[in-house]
Amino acid sequence: MKMRSVGLLGLLPFLVLVLGGGLIIGLVTAPGAWYAALNKPSFNPPGWVFGPAWTLLYILIAIAGWRLWRQGHRGLPMTLWWAQLALNFLWSPLFFSAHRVDLALVVVLLLLLTIVAFITVTWRQDRPAALLFLPYAAWVAFAMLLNGAIWRLN
What we know:
Layout: H1 2-9, H2 11-28, H3 33-37, H4 50-70, H5 75-97, H6 101-125, H7 127-132, H8 134-153
Helix pairs in contact: 2-4, 2-5, 5-6, 6-8
């Protein structure tokens, strides 16, 4: 029982890193007048959807990373986990701060490929970690379509 509580305590740094990093980036790069003025596709969700969606996804991402770390997976699975996090955190500054919708589209494509690679690599080693990334893959695929439509419309 003691080992389990110590293991769960290890989840805390992952939650702080992923949720905290996402929150800081979200606050620093919050959509403003520039984004409001962009032409958006009809399937653009209302702004209030993004906060809850990303909060849930960041929790799933943190749990998946923690699972791999706890089980001692280092190599490729953890490299892919860190790569997706870096790409994820890079997208908002490119899109909302630098106004580089085109480069953000490249980053979100690379992010989706990294997420799919993570799911593929972890599928046999840690299926729950892979499954935790399925909603993330779906959301990022949608985000890529949205990013591409905004790029095309503007």
